[in-house]
Amino acid sequence: MTVSGIIFSNLHDKNIPELTRQRTMASVPFACRYRLIDFALSNMVNSGITDVRVITHNNYRSLMDHLGSGKDWDLARRSGGLKILPPFVSSYSGGENLYRSRLEALFGVISSIQHIHSDYIVMSDCDSICNIDLKDMVNKHIESGATLTLGVKDTVFEDRHLKNVNVIYADKDGNVTDIERDPRHATGVKSLGLNVMVVNTNELKSLLNDASAHGYSSFINDVVRRNVGKYVFKVYRYDGVFRNIYSMKEYYDCNMQLLRDERFRKELIGNPLRPILTKVHNSAPTKYSDGAVVKNSLIADGCIIKGTVENSIIFRGVKIGRGTVVKNSILFQDTYTGENVFLNCVITDKDALIQDGRMLSGHETLPFYIEKGQIV
What we know:
single chain, alpha/beta, Spore Coat Polysaccharide Biosynthesis Protein SpsA, Chain A, 2 domains, 7-stranded mixed β-sheet, 22% helix
């Protein structure tokens, strides 16, 4: 049995446009030292998948810089390894609408898929934050004899309008019976799609050929839903921690949950059996000056802390001035704050500069965002 992986790096960029104007969803920073793609990529590597393709669309310079040759994930290999697939652009197609969906993304790299000789393919988006044992998912897929297995997470809701998610319905034997997109009034226990799936390689190629012949555009709605009952589609119920990054608020909440929920943090990034791997920078240790106060925060290497940091996530190279108070905030790499600054519920992008005496505050439902390189 051999397994390959496909990761979609740009599919959900519109969910958090503030953070994806100059980067892909895959390269959005997370938890003071990671990028979102680290979770999908580490899930595959930890499960023994060493042939991984990353489909890109645009703004993928920072993603390529982060992934490099794949050596930090042990994917710098002669056979298999990490392959970054740039968008297919011809003199006729142009670059405006390269792809808008998962299915169109697969069409764009069909020549690469045709060269996959593994028995199975695991496909994953980058906006699903989880630490899943894909080896168990693949084994359950093989045992069931399914064509496609969709990962789901059972979640309790109370009359909530779900956005940018798929709700998967299945019978008692785990056979998919229907799929609903963004239900208006979600109540009770719903099986949310993880955007992680396992498919038989040859049948994926067949499904793609059929979808191309019919002019389909959506993998879930046109390929999966139309073929429910014709093919065996199963669900795999994942019971670990899971968050879906479908908005700026959800991104902020997910980071803050790492600080307030020890179980969530340990299961997500503290599992020694399935570590989340990332690019190693070998920065100098963080320096804490006399009078610095740090409480309940995650702080990366290479920082200089002279003020107070509470309930915050601080990325590499951040400098916090004397007398400055940072609360409930997320400061990206190389953010600089002057002296006597007050920040509450603020997200700063890379290289932001906040001058002396500034007072900035958002709210946990609407964090205040400072763009990359902006001076306040």
